[in-house]
Amino acid sequence: MTAEETDSIEVENRDVNSKKAYYAWAGALIFSIAFTFIIWAVGPFLEPFIAILGPDLGAEWYYWKLPAREFMTMLIVWSFYLAHQFSIWGSIYWAQKNLVEYKTRPTSGLTTYNWATLLINAVFIILHLFQTHIWFDGLAQDVPIITSQGSVIIMLVLILVMENPRRGLFMGRKAGKPITAQVSGFFRRNHQYIIAWALVYTFWFHPMAYDPQLVTGFFYMFLLFTQVSLAYTVVHVNRGWVVLLESFVGVHAFIVAVYNTIQHASTDMWAMFASGFAFMFVFTYIYAFKVRKEIRWIAVIAYIGALVWIYLPASFGGYGRPLTYLMRLEFLWIPMILYLLAFVFAGIVYLFLKRRTTTETW
To answer: What is the DSSP string of 21-70?
Structure first.
C-alpha cells in the first residue's frame, strides 16, 4: 500500500468518525437565531430612514426603499452583492473541481469549502447589517420585486425536480418524462450556482430592517446559507432538514401576508399562502419520510379539515373566508405554479440532453 493510499484511508476514517458537520450545523443555527435577534434589537436605530419611506402602492411596489436613489449608496450595495456572489461562486467552482468524491459519499466532517463558505456568509451577513444602518437601501432600489420573489420560486422548483427520484412529485409517485432520472441528475450536479445566485441576490435585495416580515425572511435566509455552506456533508442531504427548508417559506409567506393585511390594509392573502404551502407538504414533501400510510392519510384529512374551517361561514364556527376565493381554487395556485414550472424546467433540460446525445451519436 502506497503512502498516498494510506493517507486517503486515514482521511476517510476521520471523516466517518467526525461530527464536525453536525457541530457546524448547530453553530450556524445558533448564529442564525442570535443574529436575527440582533437585527430586531438594533432595528429602532433605523427609524430616521423608516420615517421617510413612501406609502405602500400595492403588490408590485416594494415598500422598504428610500424615496430617492443615491448613486454612491447603490454603487456600494452592488459592490457588496457582487463580492458576496462571486466569492460563493468561486468556492463552488473550487469544490466541484476538488471534492468530487463527496458528491456521492457526503462527509460528516468539514471540507475547506465548508469552512470558507461559512466564513464568507458570516462576514457578508454582518456587513449587510452595517450597510443597512449606514445607507439603508438594498438592491430593491434598482430592480423590481418580482426578481426577488422569482428567485425563491426557482429554488423551490429545482428541489422538486432533484428530489423526484427519492420521494416522487405527488403523493410519492415519481413523475415520468420530462422529469427523468437523467434530468434530475443534471439539476443535482448543476444546481449549486443557480441556488447560490437566488439566495445571495435575495439577501442583498432587502435592507436588514426589523419589520416582522423582513426579520423572518432573513432568518430563513440564514438557514438557507447554512445549507449552501454545508454542501458535500451529510447535513446537506438530510431529508428532515431539506423538508424544513422547503416548508419554512410557507411560514414566512404567511407572516408577510398577515402583517401586510394588518399594517397596510393589503388584500387578505394569508389563506392562499398557508393552504398552498401546506398542500405541498401534505402531498409532496412528507413523502421524503418513511412513515406509515396512516400518518400520511391523517395529514391529508387534517389538511382538508383546515380548508373546511377556512371557508366555513363564521356562523357555523368557521373563519368565514368568502367562498369566491374557494371557487377560484386559491389553495391550488402555489402548487400549480411549482408543479408546472418543474415540468417546464425539466422539459427544457430534457430536450437539451436529448439533443446533446443525438449530436454526440452523429
So the answer is: HHHHHHHHHHHHHHHHHHHHHHGGGGHHHHTT------TTS-SSS-SS--
Contact of 181 with 216, CB cutoff 8 Å:
no
CA 321 to chain centre: 29
Number of H helices, E strands in the chain: 13, 0
This prediction's pTM: 0.90
Tell me the three state secondary structure of residue 300: helix
Let me know: does 257 contact 229? Beta carbons within 8 Å.
Answer: no
Instruction: Please list the residues that pair with 107 across neighbouring strands.
Output: 233
Q: Are 201 and 151 in contact (CB under 8 A)?
A: yes
* 355 grid coordinates: 439533443
C-alpha cell at 351: 430536450
List C-alpha distances in Å: 40 to 32, 48, 83, 118, 212.
12, 16, 26, 22, 9
Residue 163 near residue 238, CB atoms below 8 Å: no
Q: In the chain, what are the domain boundaries?
A: 17-361
Phi, psi of 292 (to 5 degrees): -65, 155
What grid cell was written down for 54?
413612501
* pLDDT single digits (tens) 155-202: 999 999 999 999 999 999 999 899 999 999 999 988 999 999 999 999
Say how far apart CA 76 and CA 84 lie, in whole Å.
Answer: 12
- Residues 102 and 233: their CA atoms lie apart, in Å, by 8
Distance separating alpha carbons of residues 209 and 120, to the nearest angstrom: 21
